[in-house]
Design goal:
This protein is mainly α. The chain has one domain. The protein is 68% helix and 0% strand. It is built from two helices and no strands. It is elongated. The chain starts with 6 loop residues before the first helix and ends in a 23-residue tail after the last helix. The mean pLDDT is 84.
């Protein structure tokens, strides 16, 4: 077996990581589109700058959520969180968390 892990657990971890990466990519894309929309409708340079900052915050949060999910999935596979149960985590946009 691969490093003492069961093959099935590795497959579950990989699938969960793929899902977390896909979700992160979708959140980053949504942030980029929203920024472009806000910049097109804004007339004030300050509003345009705020749209860029907001996008950067959302992109950074999506990346942090992805990394946290990957760490969580690795811990779950290693047996630190239960009997092969895999859960993805997230606190960013679209996860029911609080929004700025």
């Amino acid at each position: 077996m691969q490093g003492g892990k069961k093959v099935g657990e590795n497959i579950k971890e990989t699938a969960a990581n793929i899902g977390a990466s896909a979700k992160s990519g979708m959140e980053k894309t949504k942030a980029n589109v929203q920024e472009k929309t806000e910049k097109m409708t804004a007339h004030d340079p300050l509003q345009k700058e705020m749209a860029t900052q907001k996008k950067e915050e959302r992109v950074n949060q999506a990346e942090l959520d992805k990394q946290a999910a990957h760490q969580h999935n690795a811990a779950a596979t290693a047996g630190h969180l239960g009997q092969g149960r895999h859960h993805t985590t997230g606190t960013g946009y679209g996860t029911g968390g609080t929004y700025p």
